[in-house]
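INTERNAL AUDIT FORM
Audit reference: QA-55
Scope: verify that the stored structure record matches its stored sequence.
Auditor: D.O.
Record contents follow.
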Amino acid sequence: MKKLLILATLLATVFASPAYSRDTVHMLSLEEALNTPDAKAKLDGSVEFYFSGQDHPAVGDSLFEAVTNKKTNAFGKSDEEACKWVFLSAMIALQERAKQDGANAVVDIVSYYDKQEMASATEFECHAGAILAGVALKGRFVRLED
């Protein structure tokens, strides 16, 4: 019994590894992410997107503000690949919400990871770890004037 206990303790020590977590912050190009073939195929043009600092047509009706917080499996992908994929997922969520609620645009979009705003007209914020990558976006859903 004593040998079994020693063996179990030894095995537990050998196979137990400290949990390493990684949270690397990436600032990536909006233009590059929005010009991928996947983005061009999935963002259908029925909703216009304007990030903080970008000029947009006059707002007719301001409807509401909402946040999308998306994660994706990053295992086996480069951080940039996972970040672009999860960014597209967040943009699709904004598009679908706008269509559902009668908006034709989302304006003043900011990165909103951990409820911390990062406003940029050229970049989005992505957090990548060993297993997951995440993007959170916040924007104002509106109807633009014709």
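Auditor finding: record pair retrieved intact. The radius of gyration is 21 Å.
Action required: none
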